[in-house]
Amino acid sequence: MANKLVIVESPAKAKTIQKYLGRGFRVEASMGHVRDLPKSGLGVDVDSGFTPSYEIAKGKEKVVSTLKKSIREAEAVYLATDPDREGEAIAWHILQAASPPRGKPVYRVVFNEITRNAVQQAIATPRQIDNNLVDAQQARRVLDRLVGYKISPLLWEKVKRGISAGRVQSVAVRLVVEREREITAFVPQEYWTIEADLRRHVFASEKEGAIFRATLIERQGKKLDKFAIGNKAAAKTIVDDLNGASYVVQKVVRKDKKRTPAPPFTTSTLQQEAGRKLGFTAKRTMIVAQQLYEGVDIGGDEGVVGLITYMRTDSFNVAREAQDEARVVIEQRFGQDYLPEKPPFYKTKAKGAQEAHEAIRPTSSRRLPEQLRSVLTSEQMRLYDLIWKRFIASQMAAAVFDSTTVDIAARKEAGEGAAPYVFRANGSVLRFPGFLAVYNVTLDEGEEDEDAEKRLPPLAERDPLDLQKLLPIQHFTEPAPRYTEASLVKELERLGIGRPSTYAPTLATIVDREYVEIKEKKLIPTTLGGVVTDLLVQHFANIVDYSFTSEMEQQLDDIADGEKRWVPVMRDFYVPFEQTLQTARSEMRNIKREEVLSGIVCPKCHEGILAVKFGKNGEFLACNRYPECDFTSDFERNADGQIQLKAASSPEMSDVMCNLCGKPMVLKKSRFGPFYGCSGYPECANTRRIGKDGKPVPLPEPTGVACPKCTEGELMRRRGKFGRPFYGCNRYPKCDYITNDLAEVANYRPDAEPAEAKAAPARATTPAKAKAAPSKAKAAPAKATAAKKPAAKATAAKKPAATTKKPAAKPAEAEKPVRTRKAS
């Protein structure tokens, strides 16, 4: 009988661990967090030591009930949640929610990989819950709640409902906004290089050599910096001076250059490299990595097994057993030469790194990617292949390059003195691939591979050279590139902002909140992102300050290490924060009352300027001459971050002519969908609905039948929402007569018109009228009931008529007309 209970977060993880523990153990899943702060309300008692008020997470009541029962029945309980602060907090919350009986043995077990050996060893060496780690996670949660729930309502009031501020997310947005402004303000600086295409002089008996390129580095004994040749005139002076010069090899320097492998992956470097090589977002990378960590059925004797170690880590540490296994694999596949003398050690550079964890690596280097191709999904295979290659490469010998530097003297007159001009050519040839036989790091935009292979022909000192071409080349400096997800994660880690578990959620949040857009994999701030960043920088400087945020992360690390208590840290933060908040409430400007102009002339009135507005469905453009001009449009940002109208939102002339004034109609869009509006608006406000076939709904057809109610109008044949025809007076809304059958017109008697017919019938509405406020209409009594129970009718007549609110019809809809009844 299973009398020991193991609790983990997910069913996939539970399934894998159950196989390793076998009989005597039962493994159940908590399905993630079981308790959290309430969705509504602050949930933190600031006056009572920042005490959080936790509640069972919505939908987790049944899970908690099941865990309570299982804990009562178990002989002992093992909390095997993830080996980080969040995992420690989940374990603590499970205990608090389940309230195990007094005296029940409860243990905390951690493992860095889900393999048989790791799991069984963890069960054999349990410990108690680390309250320092729990306090650190609780402090982070409370801190984030205070910032989010205090600042966000202020932004709702001043900018737009539904947006938010966050301790890490707002700093990430600021980085993107400031980079964009650097690019916008950047002024390119001109500079020139003088480059020469040369070839070794060929004597009669020799074979012609290859052409190579050299760059001018020295003039009149002075080294040239990047901007030494600042314009075309300066470049021309040098070219003219070199006219007729001879070129001779002055010096050749050859040396070996070693390039060491990159360390195994941490969370941030995995997200960066998966973004560069695989095109994965940070969120997608972590989802797939979680699958590989929790276990995949690879068949055979192993069955379900975790393929990689824990994927939320900032440490480069590797277990000695894993290094030894990797060395065996390397020797078998590549040979002894590819092994370094001893296993490498990598020092973690990230601020606040938790060295007790391991780097991300395969749980067994012997599981080659090609062997798993048939059992993994495409995404799992690509990510596992990346992790396996990076780890194996990190344990291999350095690559060796033959590096050659050739200095070339250029002078018009023969002599032994210093040459007036010196050119330099660099060459690099891979002599021993080492780790490059397996893996090479992909560079970010703007980075240059210094070891890129570039061959030079055999050259020796005093070799004469023939000039093939002298090239003055113009260059301009370029701004720093826009952030990608990969480079933003890299910068956040460099600054010490956030931790492995926060990078992916932060990136997802700033896109979901519409602070940032992704265009061609580049992060471009929206107008909303810029506005909110400016307000936060002005009124909450500390919250979005890089150093302050990094220092706060360090204090959370100190709490985890037991060096600080969490409540004093919260108090030191909150007291000045609350004062700043009070000031901001009174001084922060109201963006809702301001215009953020785009600089685009209104395409409708040609007088106004389109302003960026923040609606419930996101940003849009509107003419600043409203209400004189009612033009609005969706917009997008191009690859340069410039605002441009979406083609579908720009006025689009159609071949449909207005049936009232004869002008072309324009395809427009309302909240109910597309419709045609007269291009002569506002002189002509005619509109036409668009049917399901994409064509204008047919115009009402005259019947020649006079309206029996007003006797002035003519009945027109129209179609309702579902295509059924009905007939209505063309003097609507002055006359509201409608019927489904022209045969009933002859039987119409005004004095016998029922109450429901006298009530204003619902008509097909045009898009222009669709915004009308909901109207009240009397409820029509049921026919059948009235016919069978006349007494009830009399009783009902004594009561006030019931009213119901009826929403305005959509542009493409019309209510079914009420059939008129024959007079008795």
Q: Structural class, from secondary structure content? A: alpha+beta
Strand count, sense and closure of the main sheet? 6 strands, antiparallel, barrel
Radius of gyration, taken over Cα atoms and rounded to an integer in Å: 38 Å
- The coarse overall form would be globular
Any low-confidence stretches, pLDDT <50, length ≥5?
Answer: 755-824
CATH superfamily of the largest domain, by name, is Topoisomerase I, domain 3
Name the helicity range.
25-40%
- CATH C-level category of the largest domain: Mainly Beta
Number of helices: 20
The overall pLDDT average reads: 86
Strand arrangement within the widest β-sheet reads: 9-10-16-15-12-17
Distance between the termini: 82 Å
Indicate the multimeric state.
single chain
Share in β-strands: 15-25%
CATH architecture of the largest domain: Distorted Sandwich
Number of strands: 35
Number of domains: 6
Instruction: Quote the CATH topology of the largest domain.
Output: Topoisomerase I, domain 3
Question: How would you describe this structure to a colleague?
Answer:
The structure is a single chain. This protein is α+β, with helices and mostly antiparallel strands and 824 residues long. The protein folds into 6 domains: 4-129, Rossmann fold (3-Layer(aba) Sandwich), CATH 3.40.50; 161-179 and 482-588, Topoisomerase I, domain 2 (Orthogonal Bundle), CATH 1.10.460.10; 190-260 and 400-476, Topoisomerase I, domain 3, CATH 2.70.20; 267-397, Topoisomerase I, domain 4 (Orthogonal Bundle); 595-643, no CATH class; 701-783 and 802-806, no CATH class. A 6-stranded antiparallel barrel has the order 9-10-16-15-12-17. Strands 2-1-7-8 form a 4-stranded parallel sheet, sandwiched between helices. A 4-stranded antiparallel sheet has the order 20-21-22-23, with no helix packed on it. A hairpin with a 7-residue loop joins strand 30 and strand 31 (714-719). The N and C termini lie far apart (82 Å).
